[in-house]
Model the fold of this input.
Amino acid sequence: MKIFLGPFGYAIANLFSAASGFVLVPLLTRTLSDDGMASWIVMEPALVLLGQLLMLGLGHAVLQQLCEAKLDRKNVFYSHISALSLVSLGCLIFGAAALFIFDKNTVLLFLLNVITEVMLGYVIYYARASNDLKIYYSASVARPLLIVIAWMTVSYISASGWQQNNNESIENFLLIRFCIAAFIFAVIIWGTAVFDSKKQDARAVFEKNLVFDAIKFGIPLTIASALVAFQDFLVRYLLANFVRQDILLEYYVHLKAVALVGNFVVSPLAIWWGAERYRAMAKGDAHFNERANSVMIKSCALYAFLSAIFLVVLPWTINIFSPGMQSSMLLASLLLAVPFTQMLVHLTNAGLMRQGVTKYQIVVQSLSLVTVSIGCVGLLRWMGIGVAGAFLLANLMAFSVSYYLSIKFYPVRYRVVRSVGAAGFVFIVAYFVINLTAVSFERIWL
Done:
């Protein structure tokens, strides 16, 4: 069962969470009113963004403070939760005032959901720092699954067995979402050994210096994450306004298809390595050097192998996403290279994840944002392929600057060239063998 404590465990969690979200989309379009669905399309990204911002960077900080600084887990938890409770109180006051002024239940329910997003978001970071997949699965997998089940049940009953459609309000959905999230948060707090009063002192310990240090460490990382999200939004905006709709659809479908590879390798690796690197660094420079290079070469080889499989089955994959659309090997290859460079950034930026230097992450992502802006304007003549190339160029810029600054603040001999070379070798061999096998199978059976 040790394998489930590593990236594979997080990959399985991402798979179940994504599946629940996939089921929820058609369910909401079937049951919510038109106004309710329009409101949720706007609210969903706003919930995620506000949840991250109002966490005050404490999610990023708990990884560093617990895994590297070896602080008492009880002190860290109570100090951070105390700060987040003040944020939640502010949200409630603002929501009550907005409710009094505008008489909109949606406003208060939205802010209640923001509060649970903040609290459960912090718990997910805490689970990563503690390497506790029970907590992680409860917060990231059980919540969307229970929301789907509860909403299906309520909608079925109120609609008399799906006889009526599009009759549910957004308030009902927000209320169910809040109740489930609050219930899961309470179960996690009271049901795990971390907070068991028999093993831990239940006295709340608030250390303001701990919170201030965490905020100074985590807020730059939160801003950097927001810049990454804005970079993706900018690319889509430029495509939507300056290229034909069919080119936009081609880019979007290939992007979503490529995400299948990225979500199985890069996302779980970033979640797991985000905490694991601090544990490795705490054991000394030599141990971290060996650990980081071992993870890098294995991750690069795995990503290359899955990319080779993906490119072989690309025509069938694109046809599933959008029947009748022609696949573009060049566009898919450029888009596949973007998560690969992002993975290299995650694996080599340990020097920028230390106290006092996280502010340089903002510099890295700002330069990347400028690069993708200039690149998109210059390469739009090549439509979707040009934008994908600009996106790749921006990520290569981010990797180069991040790598230079990282080894400056924390000298480590990363074997980047060896890892990329191994990935190239695996990709060439795997693509040749898999493609030959696919062609032979097609000739024999089809």
Summary: The chain has 15 helices and no strands.
